[in-house]
Design goal:
about 210 residues; alpha+beta; 6 strands; about 35% helix
Amino acid sequence: RQTFTGTAPVPVPVTTVNHHQPRDRETHAGEFLVELGGALPTLMARLAPLLSLMSASERARFLSRRSFAHQLQIKHGQAGAYTSFDGGALAFEFLVPQRVCTGTGGTLPLTSLLAIVDETTTWASVGLDPRRRPGVSVSLGAQLLRASEVRAGEALVFRSKVLKLGKTFGFLECEVAGATGAVASCTHVKYLEMGRAWDALFGPHLFP
């Protein structure tokens, strides 16, 4: 009689391979697409007001893909041009076009006037700042100096001056005049901090 000693055999787990798994995935994907297709009309109906608003915005006069300055026709060679930069004052002459006169009675609105002041004073700041910083606007204001409104065909001169440029803030002013005299007196405060990378790229050592 022989006696055997040892450990009991350990059961080995058996893994069952599902050969139909890829087909199940295809089935789930197909079901998802069917559900998505069924929900698509409802989704499009809910998005219709937003899509209509976006379409109207694209057709709006000042909400196209081109820049706001382009729509105001203040890019050089459109309805206006920079004519001089003497004594720290940048002069911009602007012949008011009909398309920007969207105010009451076909007049130039104050918001468009301030947008032009923003553009011209910023270029005056860039021209005199050793680091060519455009900055961002902190405040922008205007005091109208005449009762009559600005209309299409009138020639305006924007004379922008830099009052002070510091490390953080810049203070500018702009006098707007027409053929009959002063139109508005405007002030502009800009935050000029642009970071070390900007100062290194546009500092005096590269742009003396």
